[in-house]
Amino acid sequence: MKRCHPVSLLFIGIYFSSLLISSGIAGPQKEGKIPITTKSEEARKAFLQGRDLFEKLRAQNSRQYFEQAVAKDPDFALAYLFLANAQPSAKGFFENLDKAVALTDKASEGEKWWIMGVQAGATGNPAKQGEIYQKLCDAYPNDERAQTLLGNYYFGLQDYAKAIEVYEKSVKINPAYSQPYNQLGYAYRFLEKYDDAEKTFKKYVELIPDDPNPYDSYAELLMKIGRYAESIQKYQEALKIDPQFVASHTGIATNLNFMGKHGEARKQLQKLYDAARDDGERRAAYFSMAVSYADEGKMDRALEMLRKQYAIAEKINDAAAMSGDLVLMGNILIEMGKFDEAKEKYDQARKVVQESTLSDAVKANNRRFSMFNSAYAAVAKGDLAAAKEAAETLRKEAHAVNNRFQIWLAHQAAGMIALQEKNYEKALEELPQANQQDPYNLYRMALAYQGKGDLQQARAMFTTVANHNTLNSMNYAFVRSKAKQMLTSN
Questions:
Q1: Domain that holds residue 48
Q2: pLDDT digits 0-9 by tens, 422-466
Q3: What is the CATH number of the domain that holds 84?
Q4: pTM of the model as a whole
Q5: Is 168 in the same domain as 269?
Q6: From the CB of residue 464, how many other CB atoms can be counted at a distance below 10 Å?
Q7: Is the N or C terminus of the chain more exposed, i.e. has fewer CB atoms within 10 Å?
Q8: Amino acid 30: pLDDT
Q9: Over 70: is that where the pLDDT of 122 sits?
Q10: Rounded distance, CA 309 to CA 290, Å?
Q11: CA distance 379 to 384
């Protein structure tokens, strides 16, 4: 499992790297490592216990220790930062991040950079985030965790070669440190270097054989290359270690979806729901059920699951999560051909955030994403004039803040418009500049190749989409069957 905060999936669209710290002021310092500033030895010990679990991607288990740390030392900035990332809700994330930011004057300079880097990502300024993380690594070149954080930043930008280069620095500093092996495996996987990925995940298992995530990550690789039964076996090994490891439940369900066993997939997800320890895990179960129904072509049932997911966020007025849920509902409605209803959901998603107590920077970031949603709905309805206006606004504003993720969306919107206009050359100019890990963009590229008469390339792209095997992805659920149908009809 990659570490990715739920906020990034549904609202911000930014990859939240694992927040990894090194040593401590209230205890022995390690030379060249980022310090932890706390006035309480008990807080420090609790923090380190939580950090160990968090680095192994057991965020839910780690949260109690970070809560203990801030209780012992209310001025403990980094503990609030970790507590933010261990939250089951977007609301909790932002509340605790704000506390960390407010306490930066009580932290060291390195810790302040760390916190401000996370804030930059959370408010839609990834370029600034990267500058801060590089500064952190320059100041602490012998800190393996700082290097891993920078590697995760490049990973999120899909610059996998650069990410590997930085992860290898981390491994060289401390070969026994397990976390970069996880991300290295994924980086190799995304570069389709599957042998290297498998070797790396096996090394990851060797380093921490009593933790679930190495088996989970290896299982995802096996799923990616179509070894579904072996993948399920590895996920089951992870669940033997931690029966409540959420990612392994969703991984098993995803394999079962790909095997055409959607009912069995949802039985697995019901186990996750029944054993859920918090609303975050309940929402995860509902989302995965929605993906399963969408993959089976039962869009009404998928919407039903998302409404249940939304109700959990609405109960605590979690504006960011509610907005993300509404966008997902809109996307499903577009697949159902209900374009006006989709537009209503997108408008509601924007309104929820703009009328919330979230920061002005977060609201500005949301407005840019809303431009994409407006373009998406307009393209689907055939209102290309409105789509072009929204897409151009997004392009200008995304470039103005140098937001790589929103620049991808601007290219995606332009590519979708060109595809609708049957300007296939233009579509194939724009879509390769969009998010290449989104299988829907690859499907659109296949349609463009088909439209221009390059049937060989179109077939190759449809094959790529059909075998993309993306974990628990709504967009993949939309196009997996479509791609297979295109292959059988051509």
A1: 1-174
A2: 999 999 999 999 999 999 999 999 999 999 999 999 999 999 999
A3: 1.25.40.10
A4: 0.87
A5: no
A6: 15
A7: C
A8: 60
A9: yes
A10: 9
A11: 6
Does the pLDDT of residue 18 top 70, yes or no?
A: no
Considering Cα of 309, then 311, then 316, then 320, what sign does the dihedral take?
A: positive
Residue matched to tokens 């897409």: 391
Q: State the CB neighbour count (10 A cutoff) for residue 44.
A: 23
Q: Which two tokens stand for residue 242?
A: 């931690």
Tokens of 170: 């981390």
378, two tokens = 């307009």
CA 64 to each of CA 51, 76, 131, 313: distance values in angstroms, whole numbers, following the listed order: 11, 15, 32, 21
Residue 490 has pLDDT above 80, yes or no: no
Task: State how far the Cα of 234 lies from the Cα of 156, in Å rounded to an integer.
Answer: 26
Is 127 found in the same domain as 217? no
Q: Distance (Å, rounded) from C-alpha 126 to C-alpha 427? A: 26
Per-residue pLDDT tens digits for 381-432: 999 999 999 999 999 999 999 999 999 999 999 999 999 999 999 999 999 9
Give the span between the Cα atoms of 476 and 468, in whole angstroms: 8
Question: Residue 350 has which token pair?
Answer: 């924007």
The number of residues in the chain equals 490
> Domain ends where: 263, 286, 311?
311
Residue type, 252: I
Residue 235's H or E segment, with its range, is: helix 228-241
Of 42, 39, 124, 38, give the one whose Cα is nearest residue 81.
Answer: 38
